[in-house]
Design a protein that fits this description.
It is a single chain. The protein is an alpha+beta fold and 321 residues long. Helix content is 20%, strand content 30%. The chain contains five helices and 22 strands. The strands form four sheets. Strands 2-1-11-10-7-8 form a six-stranded antiparallel sheet, with helices on one face. A six-stranded antiparallel sheet has the order 13-12-22-21-18-19. A hairpin with a 6-residue loop joins strand 12 and strand 13. It starts with a strand and ends with a helix.
Length: 321
């Protein structure tokens, strides 16, 4: 049984197309590190954040004592305790929502390290800061050779560009050792692929002869006497997170819900009465409480009044004699 994980941001509509990871294996690691099968490039994601594995109960999810926790449908998992995954469960890790799906359909090749990195770059470009990275496109810069200083700004996917001596090339070189159409650059949703077009002198990437390669930030490409450097801000952002310590998420992250989730309305509760001031309470406690007179007390008082009246009458009689 294979599984599919569809990665989305809080809005649910950030990506140009679904960012999909598909696996036909018994263990899938989710995290920020280079060893993860699903790389989520954010500092609030731990290097090895969580694991999906197949056991006797089916697929389960385990939080690997991550800094900011793993959630299924809004409930935080107990670290180290497996939680059974149901089809269409929503897993939240940091600000990412992963829709879990089981599928019986045959899958292609298992995601390679390079494809996993390419999908991480897509997440950066399309989920974390799509507006910012749209203003920082990938570029191919000529840093040495006859055309030093020229550059080719790469458009968003899908696109195909040509580099060579041809006047119709997207990056026209005056290098005599370059073929008219020396290489092609293919922009797809996974990044930038560069391919040699059966040129006479070939292509070298990072000093190694190659027919094609998916470019990474700071790769160097040589054709003839021309040295070019590839610059990709999204890839640089992914690399900058490697080996860094986790960052504790802000409190607002705990309030994130996937798009389309109805907010739970809490019932109104009558406000509790305000407590009386302490000084007022002290005065009340110091004031003796009045007690109603009992029948015995009334008799004692009446007898005292009669006795007092008798003494006064006797005193008057003695004075009169």
């Amino acid at each position: 049984m294979a599984i599919r994980l569809v990665v989305r941001g809080p809005s649910g509509t950030d990506a140009i197309a679904d960012i999909v990871f598909e696996f036909d294996q018994q263990r899938v690691v989710i995290g920020r590190g280079t060893g993860a099968d699903v790389r989520l490039p954010r500092s609030t994601v731990s290097e090895h954040h969580a694991t999906i594995r197949l056991d006797a109960n089916g697929f389960v999810l385990v939080d690997e004592s991550s800094t900011n926790g793993t959630f299924i449908d809004g409930v935080r998992l107990v670290p180290g305790r497996p939680k059974i995954l149901r089809d269409t469960d929503t897993i939240r890790i940091s600000s990412f929502f992963l829709s879990f799906q089981k599928t019986a359909m045959p899958l292609g090749e298992a995601p390679s390290v390079e494809r996993t990195a390419a999908l991480a770059r897509r997440i950066v470009r399309e989920l974390l800061d799509p507006a910012g990275y749209a203003q920082q496109p990938a570029e191919l810069l000529v840093i040495d050779g006859p055309n030093q200083g020229d550059k080719l700004v790469l458009p968003p996917a899908p696109a195909r560009l040509i580099v060579g001596r041809s006047e119709t090339a997207d990056l026209m070189l005056t290098d005599a050792d370059a073929s008219r159409e020396h290489l092609e650059i293919i922009r797809d949703f996974e990044g930038t692929l560069i391919r040699d077009l059966e040129s006479k002198n070939g292509m070298f990437i990072n000093d190694k002869p190659m027919r094609e390669r998916r470019l990474r930030d700071r790769d160097e490409v040589v054709i003839g006497a021309t040295l070019m450097a590839y610059a990709d801000p999204a890839d640089a952002a992914v690399r900058s997170l490697e080996g860094q310590p986790d960052v504790v998420a802000e409190a607002t992250e705990a309030m994130l819900v996937p798009a389309g989730t109805a907010k739970v309305e809490l019932p109104e509760v009558a406000p509790a009465p305000e407590p009386e001031p302490a000084q007022h309470l002290a005065r009340k406690s110091a004031t003796p409480k009045r007690k109603s007179l009992s029948s015995d007390a009334f008799i004692y008082i009446f007898a005292g009044v009669v006795l007092l009246a008798s003494i006064i009458a006797l005193f008057v009689l003695l004075r009169a004699r």
